[in-house]
Amino acid sequence: xxxxxxxxxxxxxxxxxxxxxxxxxGFAFGQTGAAGSExxxxxxxxFPDGFLWGCATAAYQxxxxxxxxxxxxxxxxxxxxTPGKTHNGDTGDVADDSYHLYKEDxxxxxxxxxxxxRMSISWPRIFPxxxxxxxxxxxxxYNRVVDELLANNIAPFVTLFHWDLPAALPGGWQSRSTSxxxxxxxxxxxxxxxxxxKHFMTTNEIACFTDLAYRDGSFAPGLKxxxxxxxxxxxxxxxxxxxxxxxxxxxxxGPVQVGLAENAQVFVPVMETEEHIRAAQRATRVMNAPxxxxxMEGKYIDEYLHSIGSDEPRVEAGDFAxxxxxxxxxxxxxxxxxxxxAAGTPTGFEIEPWPSSYPRMYSxxxxxxxxxxxxxxxxxxxxWHPKAMFITENxxxxxxxxxxxxxxxxLDRVMYLRNHIANVHRAAVEGYPIKGYFLWSLMDNxxxxxxxxxxCGIHYVDYKTLKRYPKLSAEWYRELIKRNEVV
Length: 487
Prior knowledge:
By secondary structure, the chain is α/β, with parallel strands linked by helices.
């Protein structure tokens, strides 16, 4: 595993140090009428009735069928076929072959007992050129997947963009026209699927398809551009989200729920006192300024604009009206956090360094800090009061050794999941509007620049035979879902 992965994006706000000279507005302490009573903490380990359990995947990571059914190439097809860009030259050409094995994968979900499944649609499978004429065979595939899920009483939560940008779009996210093309794509999908799909997410982890792709060069298309260009690309990313929200609502055939899946940086107070909790709120707002903060507040806050100076992106009339389109829910992909303390500085917070002795998971970028799941929910709710939240990804790689009798005793993953879900439970019983949890991932898959060297699934995939084996974590998750409580 490389030291810098898609989820470790804590440095994505490049000019964070410059924020120290900025002033921070005050925030409410705690959520009114929600948090804090000792009685809530004594309410056991059960989740509220109706809490939704699911698993998450992404199209390029599991589907394969890269050249089948009229699909056009994505930037990840190009990137992964470029020597030296992924581990061992791995590609998503076949992946888990869910393109052909989707019914088997739905059976895995049914055996777990999940009520929901977070899946993504491959934009170039629908529009091989990124825009223009849609591909009927691509739509037919997703119709079959959605119908199979519904036949098994599993509700699809559909993500429209999980990084597989059509390679044919000129300039990619450097071009504002890509945001407009995304809006057209979102409108088409809403018209075609909203009779059955009732939950849509626009984008997944905006920092990853902007900063990692165009600043750091570690993700497709692998560019390293000047920061001024990166700031404009970020703007195109959040604009695409906002236009996508509007397009879904304008074209849906009935009531739908619309949100996104972000990977907002999570900040945990070093101790739960008022001053440190306020510091965690301030850090959440400032350090997520280009992305979630901009969406929720409908502007670039002063601290961000001060940090980027004359490199401020071009914003056209109406952009922020779209970007700030009201959301039915906020999804957050949660893996790690930073600890913060109150500080006598203009920002009011200080990010604490990690001691060399701090415990970590099998992949060293994942620190063992399960309270991040609670504070990911609480900070967002206390700052912006969304109608609802979902944990849209949470999980961890493990060494995952398959025994001769087909077992994988991934005890470390079970430990990680149990402790994170216990912190989601804390948020739920304290009254925060957390409505569901999606485990990453249903099965091992193509993990971007790490290729197949990293296994994150609760089902082991033998990449030679494509056979799926439930791990211990799958058995554990099935029991948790059955009882609707931490086990």
